[in-house]
Amino acid sequence: MNRNIGVLISGRGSNLQAIIDAVGDGRLDARIALVVSNRADAYGLVRASEAGIETMVVDHKAHASREAFERVLVDGLRARDVRLVCLAGFMRLLGATFVGAFPNAILNIHPALLPAFPGLHAQRQAFDHGVKVAGATVHFVDTNLDAGPIVLQAAVPVLDEDTEDTLADRILAQEHRLYPAAIQRVLDGRWSIAGRRVVFAEAE
User: Fold this and answer.
1) I need a labelling partner for 84 at 20 to 30 A (CA). Which of 3, 30, 130, 135 fits?
2) Are strands 4-9 and 31-37 parallel, antiparallel or unpaired?
3) What is the DSSP letter of 60?
4) Rounded to 10 degrees, what is the CA torsion of 7, 9, 14, 17?
């Protein structure tokens, strides 16, 4: 069975590292076939190279349109027989060209309990709103911002002594646990999407 995944990044790649570590210690039965960044200075490229993973840089600014940029991404991932695309701090909104090429096969992790606090600075939004529970969400990607069907979530209590930074750190720790687990469940199959719900079949 094809268990090739591609990871798209734009920055430091801490969730990429969590995926690399999970593959390495056997928690995630997958092969990272390619790591792609839209920024040549992304530290996640160093993490990938040190792990012996092929990397590719596709600068969105070097393409005339989002469609042209996305076609290059799609071609690169398809050439490596990627089955599932995982966004890990990829700071570009994907459009119909990319999403249509990988239907129900793109995951993203977001540092909030969606549908609350989509978009940038989710931890700050949660902190400023005074919520008592924050968290992280892994969801399928569609053409809307942080709006696809939810795969897994993890709750993180907001403590009275928290700052935005301490809350963000605790959410990130849960992201590193949650994302490999969600990728594993999706790769294993036995799930369906009913409306907006991701439904997992009971194990036999």
Assistant:
1) 135
2) parallel
3) G
4) 30
User: CB 119: neighbour CB atoms within 10 A?
Assistant: 11
Distance separating alpha carbons of residues 18 and 1, to the nearest angstrom: 23
- Per CATH, the homologous superfamily of domain 4-200 is Formyl transferase, N-terminal domain (3.40.50.170)
Closest CA relative to residue 8, chosen from 69, 92, 123: 92
Residues catalogued as catalytic: 110
Cα 66 from Cα 64, distance rounded (Å): 7
Q: What is the pLDDT of residues 172-186, one digit of tens each?
A: 999 999 999 999 999
pLDDT at 202: 77
Note the pLDDT of residue 65: 96
Token duo for residue 29: 């039965």
- Exposed, middle or buried: residue 71 (CB in 10 Å: 0-12, 13-18, 19+)? middle
List, in order, residues 6 or more apart from 62 with CB less than 8 Å away.
Answer: none
From residue 106, give the alpha-carbon distance in Å to each of 83, 84, 120. Answer: 9, 6, 19
- Which sequence spans correspond to the domains of the chain? 4-200
Residue 201: DSSP 8-state: P
Short-list 70, 71, 86, 74, CA closest to 35: 86
Rounded CA separation 180/18 (Å): 7
